[in-house]
Write a structure and sequence with these properties.
Blueprint: H1 2-71, E1 82-86, E2 92-102, E3 108-118, E4 121-132, E5 139-141, E6 145-147, E7 152-156, E8 166-169, E9 177-179, E10 184-185, E11 188-191, H2 197-200, E12 201-202, E13 208-209, E14 213-215, H3 229-232, E15 239-240, E16 244-246, E17 250-252, E18 254-256, E19 269-272, E20 275-280, E21 284-286, E22 291-294, E23 299-304, E24 308-310, E25 315-318, E26 326-330, E27 336-339, E28 343-358, E29 362-375, E30 380-384, E31 398-406
Parallel strand pairs: 5-8, 5-29, 6-9, 6-29, 7-10, 7-30, 8-11, 9-12, 10-13, 11-14, 15-18, 16-19, 17-20, 18-21, 19-22, 20-23, 21-24, 22-25, 23-26, 24-27, 26-28, 27-28, 28-29, 29-30
Antiparallel strand pairs: 1-2, 2-3, 3-4, 4-31
Length: about 400
């Protein structure tokens, strides 16, 4: 009896010990799984933080380059760099460096490397930057682009290896681009990112589009144009209300030739003689027969705070026939640009907040950037491919990401 009781007690102890061992094994396993999950979570969060920090460094470097380009302090021999800069509100740092390479075709590219570090984890982002101007498109608008019957858009000064002509909108709204019967576009139409070209472009079956239609990969940002400080600080010369010659930088309240003379048959002319930059804080208005004439060996840059109105028979006559010699920059207070005259215009217009309206058979050689664009009647629009050729000194030049990779 005592032997049987002893065996029972021994079996119970063995069972308890086995249970304890099993519980210990399960507990250790759970602790191991928990520790692994915790370690994995810490590493994952560190990887995310490092990646975000690397992206922040890339953004900082790109913004710094564009800031220097806007301020005209950009120096290729002293490109921006940073080492172990802390990211606010976290224990991460970023470092970036920028280099320059010159391709066989003579074009320059910039390489940007940004390294983000969080704890023991680091992520590297590499990208190639390319310098772009503000006239990459023949016509570019934020909203509606309307081309009436008979309008033809094509390019000139185009080399065999040049990319195709492009017109585009940042909009994805239905019918944002209207191409009526008889419209010919010798190039591509680009719509806003995520947009459906078949929805955004209205009546494509009535128009001839030799290129492709597709959405942009990213939202196109139009750089803000600032008036050079030397011009902005000038004392205004008041209003130009009659014939005159401008041969030096100047600031005016307005240029208003409408009704400037009591003689209805008198034509007023503003002659530009020399390489001139003008800041007009108000409107620029040309009445019937009035004109701004740019001499063959001259150029004109206009910073326009108000609106531009050209009435019937008025003209901005660029005798150089080079669109680069006439550039009109509409500031954020420039909301309307109207050409009611027929004729020919050689120039480039950048007015991202303006509705641009061509009422008559008005042929354009150059490029246009606006809030909206309307061509009322049949006309021709010729995009000068030379406008894509830029240098650091040009207005609105900026860096964009061409290629990107992560390590």
């Amino acid at each position: 009896m005592n032997l049987l009781q002893t065996k029972r007690d021994g079996f119970a102890i063995s069972t308890v010990l086995c249970a304890v061992v099993l519980l210990m094994i399960v507990g250790i396993g759970l602790l191991s799984v928990g520790m692994h999950q915790r370690t994995s979570g810490v590493r994952t969060s560190s990887e995310i933080a490092a990646r975000c920090t690397a992206d922040a460094g890339l953004t900082k470097a790109l913004n710094e380059m564009n800031r220097q380009l806007a301020l005209k302090t950009f120096n290729e021999n002293s490109l921006p760099s940073a080492s172990y800069e802390p990211l606010p509100n976290c224990d991460s740092t970023y470092s970036y460096s920028i280099g320059k390479i010159t391709l066989a075709d003579g074009n320059d590219l910039y390489t940007l490397t940004s390294v983000g570090k969080s704890g023991r984890v680091q992520k590297r982002v590499n990208c190639t930057l390319e310098m772009k101007g503000i006239f990459e498109y023949a016509i570019y608008v934020a909203e509606d682009l309307t081309l009436r019957s008979g309008t033809t858009i094509s390019a000139y000064n185009q080399d065999a290896d040049d990319p195709p002509l492009q017109i585009g909108t940042n909009s994805t709204d239905s019918g944002a681009v209207t191409c009526k019967s008889g419209v010919t576009i010798d190039g591509d139409i680009i719509v806003g990112p995520g947009g459906d070209p078949d929805t955004v472009i209205n009546n494509t079956t009535e128009a001839t589009i030799t290129g492709e239609t597709y959405p942009s990969l990213i939202k196109n940002k139009t750089p803000t144009i600032n008036v050079p400080k030397a011009l902005a600080d000038m004392i205004s010369s008041g209003t130009v209300d009659g014939s005159t010659t401008i041969n030096a930088p100047a600031k005016y309240d307005s240029i208003n030739l409408i009704g400037a003379s009591t003689d209805p048959n008198k034509i007023d002319k503003v002659t530009v003689d020399g390489h001139v930059k003008v800041y007009v804080t108000g409107d620029l208005r040309l009445g019937n027969g009035d004109e701004v004439e740019i001499q063959p060996d001259s150029s004109l840059v206009v910073y326009l705070g108000g609106n531009l109105y050209v009435d019937n028979s008025g003209a901005i006559n660029n005798l150089t026939k080079d669109p680069k010699k006439l550039k009109i920059f509409g500031l954020d207070t420039c909301t309307n640009i109207d050409f009611k005259n027929a004729g020919i215009f050689y120039g480039a217009i950048y007015a991202p907040d303006a509705d641009i309206h061509l009422y008559n058979g008005f042929n354009v050689y150059g490029a246009v950037v606006g809030k909206s664009f309307t061509q009322d009647v049949d006309a021709n629009f010729y995009y000068d491919m030379n406008l894509r050729e830029i240098d650091i000194s040009e207005i609105g030049v900026h860096m964009v990401i061409k290629r990107w990779s992560e390590q």
